[in-house]
Amino acid sequence: TALRDMESTLPKEEANRRNIERIEAFNIGRRRAMDLTKRPVPPYPLSGLINAASMVTRSSTNDIKAHRRNRYLVRIRWAIWYLAQGHFSYSAIARTFNRDHATVICQSFKLIETDALFRDMVAIIRSEALRTKERQRQEVESILERIAA
């Protein structure tokens, strides 16, 4: 309130200038906070993870996204969710699989530490997703080169 009382005695131009400075300082702080909350660009799209898992495990993408509780399919889903965490929000992952976000926060972190087969499956799916993305990038570059020529 003391600041307001002081500003009421200031000339109008000075009060407006201080107000503008305050607003700019607020916006700078807000921009910094937004920069800190930005997620890094994911190395692969979520659909690319699902397709890679489908190719590696020879399961259809519909089976992977389905609500079946087959142990094999559940582990595939957990592997995809494990790879997607940190790159995508839990709600974005859950929407892709038509599930609740709390479902995505699962046992995959426990499994990665204790189960060697699960670790291997995660590593294979990750490498296949990265390889697929690299192939797509090369295809796009070759198309652009043909267009430019």
Task: Please describe the structure with a list of short key phrases separated by commas or semicolons.
78% helix, 149 residues, mainly alpha, single chain, 0% strand
Tell me what you see in this structure.
With 149 residues, this protein is mostly helical. It is built from nine helices and no strands. Helix 3 (46-57) packs antiparallel against helix 5 (71-84). The longest helix has 33 residues, at 116-148.
Detail the topology: elements first, then pairings:
Blueprint: H1 2-9, H2 12-37, H3 46-57, H4 61-65, H5 71-84, H6 90-96, H7 101-104, H8 108-114, H9 116-148
Helix pairs in contact: 3-5, 3-9, 5-9, 8-9
Give the termini separation: 68 Å
Low-pLDDT segments: none
**What is the H/E string?**
HHHHHHHHH
Q: Approximately what portion of the residues adopt beta-strand conformation?
A: under 5%
In total, the number of strands is 0
